[in-house]
Predict the structure.
Amino acid sequence: MLKKLTILSFLAVMALALGSVPAAHADGLPVVYVTLTGVSGGSANGVDTSPYYGTVGGTQGVPIVCDDYWHEVYIGETWTATVNTFSSLDQARFQGANAAATLLMYEEAAFLIEQLGSHPGSTNDISFAIWSIFSSGVPPTANSAWWLNYAEGQNYYAGEFATFEILTPTDSGAGSAQEYLVNTPEPASMLLLGSGLFALGTLRRSTKRQAVAS
């Protein structure tokens, strides 16, 4: 009886958690809640540079990297995002002339994200190089062009960035949140499991002028 009650209690908790999970996107891709919780401390050209930190699908303290210079997010802000992978980029925010061009842009970004950990003194330059992949008019830093050229000169292979996910806001309007990339070994289903279990932050701060780059 005790075992049966324990199982039932577990199922009840799971049902409660899953009831807070946002519905899947129309094309079947998973959708998670994302909350921006902090920044790394680096900044250039008046904006904070990656990595930032967030709660993704209920998982706290996740390093997230912004690829989206012209949108804004505030610390404490929560939004819903479609979870794209490198095998499903149709719903990603930035689209190239064709599928191959779209994939190449995100591969270059993922490559540069991997460089953030091994080059902590270059986070500003790498961040601005990532933004330059996807957007025009991004101001340069001292060495952002070098990092951009470095990423463009690599040869990428299928499945190289299988652990990356692209968190694309479900709201695609001008005032929507930024798109982020995350490198995580957990499958999206694990992120979905806890997506309703975090408390929403209330502190809001402009990321365009003070903190997170947009």
The CA atoms of residues 54 and 157 lie 29 Å apart. Residues 1-20, 188-214 have pLDDT under 50 and may be disordered. The helical segments are 2-19, 99-118, 123-134, 144-152, 188-193. The first helix runs from residue 2 to 19.
